[in-house]
Each structure stands twice: as C-alpha cells, then as structure tokens.
Amino acid sequence: MNDLARLPVKSRVRSLRATALRRTRKARSNYYAFLSYSHKDEELADWLHEELEAFHVPTGLAGKVTANGVVPKRLTPIFRDEHELAAADDLGEEIRSALAASQYLIVLCSPNAATSHWTNAEIECFKRVRPDGCVLAAIGSGEPFASENPGHEDDECFPPALREKYDRRGRPTGRKAEPLAADLRGGPDERRMGFLKLVAGMLGVGLDDLVQREATRRQRRLAWLTAASISGMAITSLLAVTAIQGREEAREQRREAEGLVAFMLGDLKDKLEPIGKLDALDGVGAKVLAYYRKQDTSELSDAGLLQRSKALSLSAQVAYSRGQLDTAEKLYGEALNGTAEAIRRDPKDSERLFDHAQNVFYTGAIAADRGELAKAEKMFREYQQLARQMTSIQPDNLRYRMEVQYAATNLGALLVKQRRFDEAASQFNVALRTMEAIAAVDPANETYRKSFNESLAWLADVQFARGDLQSAAATRTRQVQLLRSWMSGKSDVAYEQRLIPAERSLGNFYWIRGDSTKASEHYRSAIAVADSLMAVEPDNTQWREYSFQTRLDFAQRLFLAGRIDEAKSLAEAGCISVQQLLAKNNEVPNWRAGLRDCRQLRMEFALSGGKTNDAIGEAQAAIAAAKTVRSNDRLGDIIALARTYRLLGDAQRAAGDMDSARRSWEQALAVIPSGVAERPFEQKEHLVILERLGRSQEARPIAARLNAIGYRSAS
Questions:
Q1: Which of 19, 197, 35 is nearest to 103 (CA)?
Q2: What is the SS3 assignment for 31?
Q3: Which CATH superfamily is domain 19-205 in?
Q4: Is there a contact between 613 and 655 (Cβ–Cβ < 8 Å)?
Q5: Beta bridge partners of 548
Q6: How far apart are CA 640 and CA 633, in angstroms?
Q7: Pick from 45, 153, 155: which is nearest to 108 by CA?
Q8: What is the pLDDT of residues 56-81, one digit of tens each?
Q9: If 0-12 CB within 10 Å is exposed, 13-18 middle and 19+ buried, where does residue 419 land?
C-alpha cells in the first residue's frame, strides 16, 4: 500500500455527498432520463424509447435503496426531442431545461451521432449543468474510440464530448473519458441484453439482478400456464413448481453472489475513481454482503471466507475514498476479522497474509487521518511485519517486496509527522534499499522507478530535518539526476512533476549553505519545468501549487540578498497563482499557506520601502491568514505563525513603537512549543526571535548548532 506515502503533505478534499442529500437532489429531477440521438437513427431511438417507458422494474428490486437512490417501479418519464434542430445556432431553452432536469443522459451512439452537432451539444450541456449526473452510452452501430485508429475515423460512434472527462464544476479537462456503455448491436437477444445492461446502470443494480429475475419471471409464467392447462393435476403441479422455484432461487442466489463478487474484484476494482463508478461498486458490494450476512461465517469455506473479506475490503475502500471514515473503519474491521481467521486456518499462505496486510494498513490509515497516531503506528508496524512474513515465504515475489517498501515508507511518513526524524530516517533507508534491489531486477519498470524516486525524496527531507545538509543535498542531487536520465529523449509528466519539488529543495539547501549561485540555478530550473507543464494543462492545480511555492521561496531569498525588484516580480507572479487557486477552493491548507507567505513578502517589501503603516497592515493580514492554515505538519504551521508575529514586531519597531514590537516578539516566542524537534530553518526563526528579545544566552546554543551543520543563510 503506497496510499499514505504522501501523508505529511497530503490534504484531501472530500467530495462526499450524504445519501439523503443525493436522494433529495434526484427527487427534484423532472425526467428520469434524457434520450439524445441523431435523427438519422430515429428508428432505433423509437425502439429504445418504447422499451424504456414500457419496462417494469422487477417487484423484488422496486423500492430498494442502491447507490443511485430508491429504485423506481417505472423508468418514466423519458424526455426525447422529436424535432430536428436544423436552423438554430444553439440548443433551445426547452432542451436546456430538460437536460438540467434529467437524472440521466442516455446517448444513442452511432457514426451519425458522433458527427451530429446537436447530439454533441446536448452532451456538453448536460455535463456542464449536471456534473453530478450520469451519462450512459447505448451503442447502436459503429465502434467506440475508432477515431483513435488511423483509417477508421468514419466508424467512430462516440461524440467528442462523450469521449472527454468533465470536472465537478462542469468544465472539460482534456482527459479521456470511458463512459458506461451498453451494446445494442446484433440480434434480438444481444439487443435485449444490452438494454438490460443500460437499465441496470440507471438503477444501480447488477446486471445479474435483472437477467436472472427476468428469467425467473418467465419460468414462473410458464409454470402457471402449464398448471392451469392441466387442471386434474393442479395440486401436484403446484407443488412441483414450488420445489423447482425453491431450487432455482437457491441456485440464483449462489450465481448472483458469485457473479457479483467476480464483478467487484474484476472490472470495477480498477475503475474506482469516478464518483459514478464508486456508487455502482458500492451498490454491488452491498448486494454481495447482504448475501453473505445471511450465512454463518464460521461455516463458510476458505474460498467463501476470503471472498466475503474481499467484498468487505472493497466496500470499505469505496467509503474511505469518499471520506466516510466511520463506515470504512467498520467494514475494514469486519474484513480484518475474516482475513485473520483465514490466516489462522493456514498461516503459511502468503496471499492470505497479503489480503490481511491491506486491511491492517487501511485501519492504520484511517487512524492517521483522525490524528490517532499511536493506533496508526501500531497498525503500520503490524503491516510491516506482515510484509516481511510474506516475503520470507516467497523471497522472489516482487509484489511482496514492494509491500516491504510501502510499509517502511508509510511508517517513516508517520514518524516524520511526529517529528521523530531519526526513526523516520531508518525506515526510509530500509525503503530505499528495498527499492534499489527491486529496481535492479527490472530497471525499466516505471512503477519501480517512481517508488525508488519517492524513497529518495523522503530520505532527503528527513536528512535535512536532522540537520545533515550535505547528505540531503547529495540525495536530492541523485534524485534529480535520475529523473533527468529517465526523461532523456521523451516527455513524461510523471517525472517532470517530481522534478519541480526536487529542484526547489536543492535551491533551498544550497541557499542555506550560502551558495546563492547554485541555489538560483535550481530555483530557475524548477520554475521552468512548472511553467512548461502549465502551458500544456493550465488547470492542473498541483503544478500551479509547485510553481507558486518555488517562486515565493526564491523571492524570499532574493529579497534577503537585496535584489528587491527581481524578488517583487517573482512574488507577484506567485501570489497571482495563489489567488487563482484559492478562488477554486478556499480550504486547501497549502494554498492558504501561500496566502500567508504572500502577505509576509508584501510586508517585507513595504518595510524596505519605508512604508511602515502598510507593512504593519500586511503583517496583521499575514497573522490572520497563518491562523487559518491547518496542514498535516502542525508544528510547521505554528512556527510559520511565530514568524508572522516576529515580522509584525519588526514593522512596529520600524514605526518607532517598541512596546508593541516587544509584545509581538514575545507572542511569537510564546506560540513555539518546547521540547519538540525543529528543522534547521525553524531553528533559525527561533534564534531570530530570541535575538529580537535580547535573550542571547538562550540563542547561543541554537546558533552553535546551526553553525555546526553549515547553515549560512540570513534566514
């Protein structure tokens, strides 16, 4: 599990919608679905429209609650535009209103639809006004994504807007979409199966729910007709039919559970990210678990026990991805009990150890998200032990050896969060040695490369935190060299993205050591890479965040070096990016930290220009911004707040108000907790505050430590 490897810098923005709220929103829809099609496909559209409106949801499903809400008895009403849109320049108001009021958009896909301006416009409109809505594709003819194969462009059946992902604000992202699709091509049986798949997607149930229930309903109808025609054997026939139905129901349940579990562990497992697919998986998972909960767990076979645990784990993963920590914890707890029992039955089965380890890891991850660090550490150490056990059973299994790397990295990240830098360094060294050995087996493997790169980045950060500036710079230099060698001759944004913080860190290291020339080279390199990436995709918030962080760091260094104009130019560009990001989401901690840093720089610029009142105002605004930052690095946030108080005191001193200045400096010192490990730049800030207050005796040992590690920067 590598999910927690970014723990200290991760700031998850939850996209959870409460079930009740989702149902309320859907209840407001005036149409169950909007049918979009090219009028050249009118005959097939007639058939599909009639089938949808005539369909009766099986009694056993109607009224049930799935991830898509309450299952209705009928799929009505269906909106369908029956008039050709030829002369208008835009969709009419009726069409736009109907799209906005429809729970689903069904696109009848064909080469005609793929080239239809109006079909594409309807898809675009729906994705803009209903970003939480679901788009379903019904393939009538042609081939999906045929336009990607030269010479087959005319066979494309998906309109352009259907092939592109839109974000949650209804904006195109430029990324490829893979819509849920039902195939209506072929004979009557194939068309009927495609239709049922389409209906299953709208109801949020498994296809087997509809297929098996429809078959059962036909069997029942036939049985009753037979019974009625043989009146003399009515009682006997009824008993026979009942027995058959009982056997068929039992077989149907077994087939349903087996099929749904296979579905969960197969096709849907790799498609968890889009919200619609999370909902679909959750609905299927609930069905599987309902089946297993009717059975005595102690009586389950080994295979049944493991299937049940996997179903629980996947449902828990969905809840965790949505930020539903209570639900996820409960489900992972049940899964944990199941995999623990499986290990008890066969403690030498490495795959059982693997499955159990995943449940242990996520239990720890939930604890870490809640700030329960002692529990998280206990679970992560158990996860690490399990990884070592499975590796001892199969030493040559690279998947198990990767678990050893993940375990060490995640445990190290948790220890960093607790400022236990020496212990964290030990874990990251384990992760690095593990990845070096794995990467040597397959040097071109992209997954191994990226994990190795991640281990180097973590190790460099913890070396710096311990004050080993030379080793930190060497490790980061190695990381940059590897990234550039892997990028040689090709463009790979995954490597370029990693290069930005690596170069920025090198800039910080060299500046601290007093080498402003090398520092500037690395800052400029990081900015150049970020700018080149943003030119490709300006809406990528991660790249924009990396860009403003580097610019603000570099601006601070240039200001201290007296290069005011260049510092102002960099700061202005960085702060514009901060404002753009905050306009998208005002709650992301790293972006709010950017606002704080912008205020600090503006205060320093004002003070250097003799504008003391402006400087005081900016410093007070920086304090207000600093108090709102709540990142995973709470001590880092606190020391940043202390710096803002210190800067306010500097501005008050420049204005001649020494009493206020001293109060601000004392407040700065008061917020810094005692007895915790400080990184070098944090020690430097602590030192400066003590010097402002004239507490030279307390400042002297800090200055000695900084001098001993080669800290040469003015800040």
A1: 35
A2: strand
A3: Toll/interleukin-1 receptor homology (TIR) domain (3.40.50.10140)
A4: yes
A5: none
A6: 11
A7: 45
A8: 888 878 888 787 778 898 998 999 87
A9: middle
Contact 549, 504 (CB under 8 A): yes
Contact 413, 5 (CB under 8 A): yes
Q: Which pLDDT does position 294 carry in this prediction?
A: 55
E strands, 73-146, in order: 78-80, 102-109, 134-139
- Residue 418: DSSP 8-state: T
Distance CA 623, CA 87 (A): 59
Q: What is the pLDDT of residues 240-252, one digit of tens each?
A: 444 445 545 544 5
Asked if 604 and 561 count as a contact pair (C-beta separation under 8 A), the reply is no
Q: What is the mean pLDDT of residues 349-353?
A: 93
| End-to-end C-alpha distance for the chain, whole angstroms | 38
At 403-458, the pLDDT tens digits run 999 999 999 999 998 999 999 999 999 999 999 999 888 888 888 988 999 999 99
CA 441 from chain centre, in angstroms, equals 30
Paired tokens of 467 = 């004050």
CA distance linking residue 706 with residue 681, whole number of Å? 9
Cα separation of 38 and 715, whole Å? 66
Contact status, residue 155 vs residue 143, Cβ threshold 8 Å: yes
Range list of H helices, 176-301: 188-203, 207-229, 234-265, 275-292
Q: Is 537:567 a contact under the CB 8 Å cutoff? A: no
Average pLDDT over residues 640-645: 96
Task: Tell me which residue of 592, 498, 504 sits closest to 556, measured CA to CA.
Answer: 504
What value does the CA radius of gyration of the chain take, rounded to a whole number of Å? Answer: 31
Residues belonging to the chain: 715
Task: Identify the CATH number of the domain defined by range 585-715.
Answer: 1.25.40.10
User: Using one digit for the tens of pLDDT, what is the confidence trace for 112-141?
Assistant: 999 999 999 999 999 998 887 889 999 999
Q: List the structure tokens of 204.
A: 């949020």
The residues spanned by each domain of the chain are 19-205, 213-252, 585-715
Residues in contact with 240: Cβ distance below 8 Å, sequence separation at least 6, in sequence order = none
CA distance 290 to 77: 31
Summarize pLDDT for 569-606 with one digit per residue, the tens. 999 999 999 999 999 999 899 999 999 999 999 999 99
Query: How far is the C-alpha of 407 from the C-alpha of 430, rounded, in Å?
Result: 10
Give the pLDDT score at 578: 96
Could you tell me if 705 and 467 are in contact, meaning their C-beta atoms sit under 8 angstroms apart?
yes
| 285, pLDDT greater than 60 | no
Asked if 302 and 351 touch (Cβ cutoff 8 Å), the reply is: no
Residue 125 tokens, joined: 């409109």
Inter-residue contact 401 to 389 (CB < 8 Å): no
| Mean pLDDT confidence for 460-468 | 94
671-706 pLDDT, tens per residue?
A: 999 888 999 999 999 999 999 999 999 999 999 999
Question: Which tokens in the block code for residue 475?
Answer: 């490790």
Instruction: Using DSSP, state whether 587 is helix, strand or coil.
Output: coil
Query: How far is Cα 487 from Cα 356, in angstroms, rounded to an integer?
Result: 37
Mean pLDDT of the chain: 83
CA distance 581 to 545: 8
CB neighbour list of residue 222: distance below 8 Å, 6 or more residues apart: none
Greatest distance between any 2 Cα atoms in the chain: 112
Q: Exposed, middle or buried by CB within 10 Å (0-12, 13-18, 19+), for 698?
A: middle
